[in-house]
Amino acid sequence: MNLVNHLYKRILILTCVVGLACSVFCYDHLPDRVALHFSVSGFPDSYGSRLVNLLMTTGLHIFLTTLFLALPILVKKLPLNLVNLPHKDFWLAPERMDETIDALTLRFYHFGILVNLFLIALNYLTYLANHSEPVRLNMLLFLAVLAIFFIITAYWLIRFYRRFSRKEIDRRQIPD
Length: 176
Description:
Elements: H1 3-29, E1 33-38, E2 44-49, H2 50-77, H3 88-91, H4 97-130, H5 139-165
Antiparallel strand pairs: 1-2
Helix pairs in contact: 1-2, 1-4, 2-4, 4-5
């Protein structure tokens, strides 16, 4: 694993740890009955205990971070017919496999960091909603967070596709 991937792996794990810490903080500061899901109008339509909230948020962070850490290993081990990558025969050829796995690893770590930050933001919005009277999700903030997540996801997908849609290797390209 190259130094850039190692750095982003640490950042991915750090965002998971921050998410876990936020979940524990919220657990200590939420009421016993917590709004877990909200309607389009922002009012709660599902409640649970704060323990359920803690288990859901920590479980999501741990599961998704583990998934993003494991994806590069899975791509390397899976049969080629189960990998969906433009020009996969070219990119997953033995002579390019290590370079491709490094590029995929970086992209998986980037997206994992984005997902963890999104979950942290959602957890914070849920925390704020449960401290408002009446309990209500700030839909403007929620939609802003969601829009930012979708825009960055679209940008990530475009970059991903552009990286693997060409067969030639540009040696001048700095790994992004």
